[in-house]
What we know:
Pfam families: DHH, DHHA1
CATH superfamily of the largest domain: inorganic pyrophosphatase (n-terminal core)
Keywords: Plasmid
Strand order of the largest sheet: 3-2-1-4-5-6
Protein name: Bifunctional oligoribonuclease/PAP phosphatase NrnA
Domain DHHA1: 224-314
Structural class: alpha/beta
GO molecular function, one term: nucleic acid binding
Amino acid sequence: METKLETVRTLQDLLAEGDELWIVCHNNPDPDCLASALALGHIAADVGIDEQHILYCGAISHQQNRAFVNLLEIDLRPFDPDDVVDRPEGSLLALVDHSVPGANNEIPAGTPVDVVIDHHEAEGIRARFVDHREAIGATSTILTEYLDALDVEFEPLLATALLFAIRRETLGFLRGATRAEYAAGGTLHEHADLNLLRQLANPSVSGATIDAIADAIDNRTVRGSVLVSYVGRTTERDALPQAADYLASLEGVETTVVFGIVEDTVQLSGRSTDARVHIGDVLRETFADVGSAGGHREMAGGEIPLGLFADQVDEDDQLVDIVERIILGRLVNALNLADDGDDGRDADAAG
């Protein structure tokens, strides 16, 4: 089996062939993706690539993600497909925390990729260098292993970024964490800026996020250990996973799905601690015919174009009602909720 040092040396040899490095983050990048991009850029700089570009698709709306970018002074630019397709000869394209062009990103399908480093479930990965480890809890763990194998001195900002990303991705080492995450955390801790780490962990929350979470609480439907809710329209996409995390703490609840309308899409966020439920598979199978969805056994998300519903009505209020009814109905069927005991709320009436 190839050692970590041999793996990162292989990566270095590939990077040394390039003059520029274009690192593309996935849609609406989270700290794990952003920290991994920073770390890969650090490795590239070490072999002489000074021209680097970190691109992001979607938006950075979660308050922790915005604080992450601002406090760590990450140089980002919005993704433009032309930048990738028409990039200079001799430049390299890398994906971190995602792996396939056109899946959770806006890269044209079939675009050749040089580097893929990821821990999410995926098929059909093609790149000159691939480190795809689904058993690992965070992509930042893999990058930390690379840097440690190279025996580099961790800069405080980079160490802080990686440590926060690992903690955030694993919910404080409680979700999907392996021995590798604990080892990486131990490596990073002595180099991290703990005051900055505390700032990142406690950012201010927008009023729109609080409103969305409140709506999710009010609109919840519970059947046995499953909770489904919706927030209507919101400007804060990342309020949905925050609402899902919060509602997952409700006593007796093991599986939670929250959905809402964000701009021109329906966004979904799911959580599950039920060993019988792979929430990524549930969302993927339920919405494969109308959008894209999937993820891990314990954490997943999805996106459906709103245009599929918009043609049916003229008024926005009607649109919201139709989205709620159809999405809730699909989830009720997928999670076998129709005949379960409930807490007084009628899922079928709500849908």
